[in-house]
Amino acid sequence: MSFLRNCWYVAAWADELNDGMLARTIIGDAVLFWRADNRLFAVADRCPHRLAPLSMGLVDGGTVRCGYHGLVFNGASGACTHNPHGSATSVLSIRTYLCLERHGIVWIWMGDPERADPDDVPAMSFIDNAGEHAFSKGYMYTAAGHKLLEDNILDLSHADYLHPDTLGGGSITRSRAKVEERGHTVFVRWFTSGEPAIPIFRPEMPDPMMQTDMWTEVVWHPNGVMILRVGATPLGRAPEQGIDTWNAHIMTPETLTTSHYFYCNSRNYKTDDAAYNAAMAAGLRTAFEQEDKPMIEAQQRALGDAELFDLKPALLAIDNGSTRARRIYQRLVADEAAASSQRV
Amino acid sequence: MSFLRNCWYVAAWADELNDGMLARTIIGDAVLFWRADNRLFAVADRCPHRLAPLSMGLVDGGTVRCGYHGLVFNGASGACTHNPHGSATSVLSIRTYLCLERHGIVWIWMGDPERADPDDVPAMSFIDNAGEHAFSKGYMYTAAGHKLLEDNILDLSHADYLHPDTLGGGSITRSRAKVEERGHTVFVRWFTSGEPAIPIFRPEMPDPMMQTDMWTEVVWHPNGVMILRVGATPLGRAPEQGIDTWNAHIMTPETLTTSHYFYCNSRNYKTDDAAYNAAMAAGLRTAFEQEDKPMIEAQQRALGDAELFDLKPALLAIDNGSTRARRIYQRLVADEAAASSQRV
Amino acid sequence: MSFLRNCWYVAAWADELNDGMLARTIIGDAVLFWRADNRLFAVADRCPHRLAPLSMGLVDGGTVRCGYHGLVFNGASGACTHNPHGSATSVLSIRTYLCLERHGIVWIWMGDPERADPDDVPAMSFIDNAGEHAFSKGYMYTAAGHKLLEDNILDLSHADYLHPDTLGGGSITRSRAKVEERGHTVFVRWFTSGEPAIPIFRPEMPDPMMQTDMWTEVVWHPNGVMILRVGATPLGRAPEQGIDTWNAHIMTPETLTTSHYFYCNSRNYKTDDAAYNAAMAAGLRTAFEQEDKPMIEAQQRALGDAELFDLKPALLAIDNGSTRARRIYQRLVADEAAASSQRV
User: Fold this and answer.
1) Domain Rieske: where (chains A, B, C) (predicted)?
2) Which residue of chain B has the CA closest to A176?
3) Can you tell me the ipTM of this complex?
4) Residue C292: which domain range?
């Protein structure tokens, strides 16, 4: 099993590049990122001369100089622009990757540059529109493969058991999920009517334990981007009268068994409340780092290098969304492999 | 080379279950142990749904609930008794293991349940009969295979070099061992007449350096249980007039190269002396943890994943007991493999 | 790819044996070294009985006693001189290695003893002749293969980028290296005329930034010993009127991907200045430990277990010396393999 290449991956939060270079491995490729003159650069983090990581060198505007023997490369074209020891021949060029910044995120295209279309970046305008005190985000390196992490979001019933006092409360389990494939995406929606809101929402209701209408929606994209809308309103009232949150959970593979986990949260209430915002950020971090991460890393350790489905796990109704996502991903990877072998 | 399955393994000291669940891997199987209502439970530590360790969940009486999606399993039958997301079908059952508590030890049967006979648990009534201040025990996780650890006990001449000031003194080396196979067990006996007792026994003699009769006996069982009797009496006196200790050294494989090492000691002298008992416990712990463990782990590192005998070590007379034990073990494993292939 | 065996390897600085035994793995062999009665001993660090490391035992004069079961071995012949458990047969002997002390270094011959000629030890009289305050040395365990480390010295242009404020300054890059094969050695010489000296030499010139003649010479030996002469004199003056340093950089393989790195430095100026000597020692240690080592270990991580040349790195003119050295080494190893198979 390998990775999908022709898609936009989330490489970093844009502000991760504010203090200089960032070295990060994406689907197995060591990549060096930096920003200069408001332009992003992403190149193979490996000098073609002696394999030294270019991230141990220096960037200067749009160029990077290897720290070992001084070769200089253009970050956009990959061409060697200066070889202090001879001519800068084309043999000395490095691979560059298309990248762009949108929604406060650095996106990288790992596949065939001719197939890259910036319009394929999933829309996340909620990030752009969120006020300073109505938004938080995080990055979590995780020793588990992207599929296990995506499974976790595509089956949010886990919140009732893993986060019972914050994000769960039993309502997701009681409401059966609606699952739809929409093109290459998977849409999952849970809806409950007549239950108290999930614990973190209760203080926002007129009466904490009152009956509500509550919705949770996930859209999964094959590049590991999942966008979640989670909200509640007093029973029978319009959604607009309730509270709503927009979230992203994004799993970018480092290797088959390790991932870069990016997450963020925005909301439509207490939007100027810095203290609440900080508490929300801390609470989510705790849930993801202390509850999700240990469980999923334990799953990965139990799996070792095996694929989950090769071990014939028992399938439940709640696996509908994740199973569909895994099939779509598998089909897309197979399509890429077929296209690649035809070209040869 | 694989493990013997049809035998009772020591899984834990019984009091290790006093504070809740215990997750421990036995001959490669991840097992979850707990006690409820005076009954022991041992089940596969892996949810059949997504392979999450059940030890990250909760036990309630004789059931365990997975911490990830809430499936509940009966610890005795392994049946799923509650699936919050659908019906609890037989596909959701988990493996359970026979286990029993005897001699303050949790025993587990890793093989065919129909062949399990509680009478096959090696008798260790000395544990039951030992007074509070005449008994100590310990557990030592060891990065070495069970065979190297069993070799160490089956050739106690090592005490003369590795523990010269406590358990050795040269007498074991000078007395040639008597070795007998008794069914599937190996019996080794050293006896010296006219030598001072081993260092830790000397203060118990009428005169520390006086001549004694001294005996050391080991009975090895294929499940890694070794029972030792070690004592001394002034030369020519009856054993009953001397001092005697009963000990167990038990090696339960975790993997081929790591082991659970359980040990205990009881004695027939100073049986009410709490301070002496504590000093004895500390002394034995030091010998095993600081002297035996580093040496045997170094052996394992030198071996890597190889079998000792594949590297053609030089055999000495002192290896008689361990060589016989290795052969019996190999034959029993081969018998199990043959029986298993006939059944298929 | 394997190691050259028929050569003298540097095992240790002689004073590393002043405080007792030294266990060190050389080209994959675990070896135990010690000195007694002004004689050196080097034996396989593995008891033939149970593979226990003899370095966990005790040396007594020219013998070593295994700490596990007391077998005693003669460090010169390897014969077992005492088996407390039976006769000391020839089957119990251990491998011994020829070794000798010269230039303050313990040398070991890992190959066929009949081919060992002490005259093949590279001459390093500069070590013997250096005054106490004109000499420093160090040892640096390095998680990189010996070839990458030798490449680093055979192409000193790296100093201009990795050590720009101390050992480099651009002059090595600007002067093209002269490379010669001399028998089984490789000689590389850089010479600049009219440039300021390298930074650490500038304070020693009549005027720091004055024009100089500057020389850097490396002689590489297939056993990983590289001898460097680096010096400078005011432009047009005789070398004898300038300053000169003699250095050794020695890479002894532990495994294919880890090395023992020994280095030393002597000089012809400020030879009685203890403070300067200490500052020079500290400066070199910083350069090697903080600048070279991280870069070369990063190269090795990028390589994994692959050979550099199998990944088709781009070759530059500066790789001339290292490429020749790699070819000579490869040829010598192939010759050894051929000779060994003929003998069989």
Assistant:
1) 8-108
2) B85
3) 0.95
4) 130-334
